[in-house]
Design brief:
mainly alpha, Cytochrome Bc1 Complex, Chain D, domain 2, 6 helices
């Protein structure tokens, strides 16, 4: 009985995990979560600990000509000095786009 319960539990966990992965594939990536994972160490609360004059807030982004999701994804792929480069193998387009959309919404 305990083995059956353990197997049922493992199956349930795997099913939920597969469902979460499928949700990501369907475009339901949590931009806030991905921002926290990849960006928040340097850009906490929209700031920038490497170059304080270049936060990821709306006004600063607009001043740099960064106004769309595609503009932010371009910076993720081809950043300036001090920022790590994330290519498509490290961060798929859907994930980068979710982060960019989050930045535009959260740090107006």
């Amino acid at each position: 009985m305990e083995v059956r319960l353990a197997v049922s539990f493992i199956f349930a966990v795997l099913t939920v995990s597969a469902g979460a992965a499928l949700a990501d594939v369907e475009g339901k990536i949590d931009g806030a979560r991905e921002f926290e994972k990849h960006c928040a160490n340097c850009h906490a609360d929209g700031g920038n600990i490497i170059n304080r004059s270049k936060p990821v807030t709306g006004a600063a982004l607009r001043k740099s000509g960064i106004i769309t999701v595609a503009d932010i994804v371009d910076k993720i792929r081809n950043p300036g000095p001090g920022m790590p480069r994330y290519d498509r193998d490290q961060m798929p387009d859907a994930e980068a786009e979710a982060i960019a959309a989050y930045i535009l919404k959260a740090f107006k």
